[in-house]
Write a structure and sequence with these properties.
The protein has about 80 residues and is an alpha+beta fold. The protein contains two helices and four strands. Strand 3 and strand 4 form a beta hairpin. The longest helix has 13 residues.
């Protein structure tokens, strides 16, 4: 698997800022770059992956961590 190009911690953010921050970070990356997003809570867990997919990015993985957070791995698609 490719190396993570950037990490974004949105565990303290609330919707809609969770995806706004994710989108801004994705826009700053080159196509094909992997972005690791740390998130917490039901709304971000549902909304961030869905919004990323809707914008054409690839959801590579979504894993729960023991501390109650999740790690979302997104691959930026070309644009």
């Amino acid at each position: 698997m490719s190396e993570v190009g950037a990490t974004l911690d949105i565990t303290r953010e609330v919707c809609p800022m969770t995806y706004v921050r994710t989108k801004l970070k994705l826009e700053s990356l080159e196509p094909g770059t992997l972005l690791e997003v740390l998130l917490r809570g039901a709304e971000p867990l549902k909304n961030v992956p869905r919004n990323a997919r809707d914008e054409g990015h690839e959801v590579v993985s979504l894993e729960a961590r023991p501390d109650g957070t999740h790690v979302l791995l997104l691959r930026k698609q070309g644009r």
